[in-house]
Fold these 2 entries.
Entry 1:
Amino acid sequence: MTSLVKRFPRHFAWGVATASYQIEGAVNEDGRGASIWDVFSHTPGKILHGDTGDIACDHYHRMREDVNLMSQLGISNYRFSISWPRIFPMGYGQKNSRGLDFYDQLTDQLLQENIEPLVTLYHWDLPQALQEKGGWINRDTAFYFRDYAVTVFDKLGDRVHNWITHNEPWVTTVAGHIQGRHAPGLKQPNVARKVAHHLLLSHGLAVESYRDMGKGRIGITLNLHPVYPASSREEDLTAQQLHDAFHNTWFLDPVFTGTYPEELDEILPFDNDFIAEGDLNLIQQPLDFLGVNYYAPHRVRWNPDEISHASLVILPEEPITSMGWPVDAKGLTDLLIRIHYDYGPIPIIITENGAAYEDVVEDGQIHDALRQHYLEMHWDALANSIEQGVPVHGYYVWSFLDNFEWALGYSKRFGIVYVDYLTQQRIVKDSGLAYSRFLREFYEYHHV
């Protein structure tokens, strides 16, 4: 392992990541309002096994214990998200000081344990009250988001120096408004481009506000995939081009070039009445870093029945995770080099990377060799990227804890720490122990 440790720069940020609705629970406590995920998860048939985030990992009550566990493992960076309805139960107007106090205490606890916070403002839990006003279809939501962001910057900005506006706006747009498998559960392709634009506008407004008041770094996190054609046939090359526009450049282009990819017009035609003068300049403001969530590449073949005119192909010899996703670490290197040359130079942080596997508790331990191997392969791929000139500054394992996996409920486990949901016992998996050893070796080598 030592040879791998040597391949990363001294100040590389290693961490773990979580999201508010997936771990916190306490959905009705201390003045928190309802989110769209509360409503969606309580709608029969929406979540596997009828699971909800009502309790989840009970992190709201076990925060200090969880932070202490991070510290014991030698984790020095933690990415978490803030629950908007904890701060503004109605999405705007009267703020809830008890909600702010929780994140204030979490921040202090992290710093006390020498763990640097990386804060995500939006990880999908929109206040339900705003959804009832149209949610992200309504342009006003972008401005409510700015006001919420300013409130959080004001409360935590003296101690938090690294911020992410949005996590995976593609998922909010597509899974939430086209496929209907995520909250708010809409199947309205005709609104998708408006939703995406308002999400990006809210990002731009938050960045602008932070520049006026903050001294740290701010970026956005996108879920991205290298897209490979299944063959060299012309139709598969077209599928590759369209799929790349639908999954990657739809959000990369406006953030970095102030335009939307033309190929998107073939997938989701639109009139641009919702784009006001100055919007794209606001969206395109310089960022301090780009957050990248990477899990797997996409290999595609032409399929006119799919919205992006492409179907995913899994090769027979490819190993897959329990999500059915191919394991291909080289895809991470390919993706990062592409971002660097097409949109860079921009500092990159891997804000999520990890794998779900079927975990079995044996004598109080979880021997998750496949997850450990997955992580180690991706660290190697990351080192390859850095050696080829990509300025990668950090890496966060998804996830610190097993948690509520959205529409799949508690059926999939991504954590390096196992959670027994009946007792809330935490058990560090072998992958977590391996990560801990790797981190200690890294810090020892670099004498950080």
Entry 2:
Amino acid sequence: MTRKPSVACRHPEVIMLYEKEEDISGAANIIAEQVDEYRTVPVTRLVGEQIKEHKPSVILFAMSSVKLSIELYTKLLKNQQIAYRHYAIVLCKNKESALAFRSCIKGVFDNYFVYLPLYEKFRLKMIVHNGLRQSQGDDHYAGLDDDQLERIDTNLASLIELSSQCKRQLLDSVDSCKASVEQSTEQLPHGSEGMSHDKALVKSLAKQHIEPLLTQLELEIKDGLDLILAQLTSRHSEIKDIKQQVIAKQQAKIPTQALVSSLLDEQEAKPPKKKILVVEDNQIYREMIVKVLEQDEYDTEQACDGLTALKMIKGNDYALILMDLYMPHLDGINTTKQLKADNDGKDIPVVALTSNNNRELIKRWAQVGLKGYILKPSNRTEILQAVKTAIEYG
């Protein structure tokens, strides 16, 4: 669910400096989905002192032109109001992308993003993610959790995680081998001319033969894992065949094999997802509800009015229906009445989606089969709690 950018965050890790609030709304909402410690700051004469006080790890410059962003950044640097490790991003209009690119190549900014018109929201998230990672380091930056990522097929998500672990494990092994060679070379005794010659010989052998072999191994590992990922993306339904390919490449990696088997057993043991029908004529709110539910591993279907919902209910086994009160063609109360009459006595729990807190109205709806209600607007926790309660006790 989209969170409104926080303007009250006391210790923001990410700050966006802007001139016109209407220009940044799209980009600001994207970052707010990703970063809790985030703040948008209008550019005034006090902006330098605000930056100096908060010391954000990532600073986004969203001035009306790239030129003004460069001037502002330069002023903050000269005044030593930015005098610490940070990651600077310039946001630009499409017509100024070449200028923004040039400023990054010349080392002014660390990256740029075209925010008017707004394209590639995931690229903006990746830029901010890399900025936090580089400026704070892996020891301090926790990264993104799965709830902040778009929902994909469960098998594919598990296999991507597996490949990531394989890659880290193998590249760590290569780094360890390189470190061992360097350490062994440094530990050779000093003193005599013959021993110095032996040390030089070992260094030469390591450089000419061992290091190239390790580098080649590292490249082959990367190429092999890239190939596996490509196969997973196009043919992830053939999970058992891919498992055999991974095991064949990692014959000596028993922990990796155990991880593959564990993932497969976990997938087979999972119960089927519960299906929920969301009936709401407001497309934006409907899609927000759907996104929250799908991130919590529910299957969803959508309807924009009561008549459409009644048609969809026939032949489908829904665990729950979330329904708006005021809709065209057939409102929530009458849809619920018709549902109860047409569903062969089977009681499907219905939870109301409404901004109307009229108790008499909700009570009248409850008399025809309502199991609960969600007031608009509601946050993710409130939505999921109402859904789980209705399914469990409905």
